[in-house]
Amino acid sequence: MVPGLPRVGTIQMNAEWTSGLWNIYPVSRGGKIKGAVQADRCLMEVPMSPARQPDRLPGGKTLTSKASVGSALRTARNARGPSLAAKKTRDFDPHAFLATIGEGRNVRAVPKRQAIFTQGDAANAVFYIQEGRVRLTVVSKAGKEATIGILKDGDFFGEGSLAGQPLRMGSATAMTDCAILRIDKQAMMEALHREHRFSDLFVAYLLSRNIRYEEDLVDQLFNSSEKRLARILLLLAHFGKEGKPESVVAKVSQEMLAEMIGTTRSRVSFFMNRFRKLGFIHYNGGLQVHSSLLNVVLHD
Fold it and tell me: pTM, whole model, 2 decimals?
């Protein structure tokens, strides 16, 4: 037993080390809660290495009276690694599945700079990028254009048609030579209903896009143009692979960067020169971004 765990309401929580597992459960004055109530107990079993001391949770955190039960459970849950459902989703190949859905789909070879659809077109299909890069833009009534996203292979776009959007709210243009799979709205709906793994993957993609848009809004409201530029460069470079510099999308102009962060080209040019002098970026047949650029985003 590990004494000193906090109470949840009137119930005292306790933990027990049994056969290489931490069991965290509520107890009554007479011991463990049994019977029908036992089904509602907070039980978390976490595999532990033989070398780990039984008075510590995964990650080396000591189970003390100051630690909350919720925190202990989250720590244990994280130690278990990805769920089985998440692993199944990763094993699912949408490219192979979409090739089998039959009618209502066709692959298009779209050359660089050609429009895939234009703002105001009928929204009657979803698109999947098999290869290449696609730029999403919106044009105001005054004619001002803004870049709202740059997508890569494996991304979907045009999903507004599934929600009843009658017309396209923006335009999509190939930034490189692309292979684009066009899926009719009805065929996409049937595929989502038929294959649960595909629907799980598609919903996860939509949620990640929504989170990205929320982050973009917060970035626009509260961060300086220098921080916004640093963040967008890190995103374009797919930052996160052990700090290695990676080439950004070929020939991303300063005008396009200015549209994406909501500032002028002259400001983008000023900050790009500063980043280059500080060693955060460099040009070597294409723009490369170093992980050190993250310091600009984190610096207050």
Answer: 0.63
